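Everyone, study these two lines:
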Amino acid sequence: MLILGMDTSGRQGSVALLRAEGEELQTLELMPIPGGQYSELLVPSIAELLVRHGFEKSSIGLIAVASGPGSFTGLRIAIATVKGLSEAFAIPVVSVSVLEAVALTSGVQGRVLSALDAQRSEVFYAEYNVVSAEPVPVDRELIASFADFAGFLANAPTRKIFTPDSSLAVRLQEAGFPTGLITRPSAETYARIAHRKFLVGVRADVAVLDANYVRRSDAEIFVAPKIV
């Protein structure tokens, strides 16, 4: 089975092509995509990747996509692309949370707290109980001010914190919270996680598939009616 992975959740993105034989995976290629150019480069990058390895779009057996939280524009572009490919070629889709991928990439078993820099002095976070190759969410994915997040951590000193964002890691460490800095998950990471989910029957409903923004976009906030 051929697996196409996509990640446009951050400032730098990627697409990946992997071949699966049972539970074994072989990465054929991981291609970076510069941030800010997802609308122009995502679809051409996928096409280039397939041509270079001698495949058609119809050869894809599974699409894996980073569903957020992250860049509003990047996530919208990826989800639209996924829906187009899935509906045109009847390809199953598995979406993977960025926070979930961070928890798994940490390589730590037990309770893991994943955190992402949400900008504006805010933090995306979620807690997972990693007991095997799959994480079990302990709570839903949340957003909080850095001050509120620090308050939460002060009452949970035994939790292990991991983030791919160096600025957030430094700020947490300076506040007295030991934090592991990990490499940001790539399209290959999402493809591997999605493949494990796919093998146990997980599928996304493409008709209702949407990005996991966690917070509303600026447009939604600014057009909301003001309460007098």
Summary: DSSP finds seven helices and eleven strands in the chain.
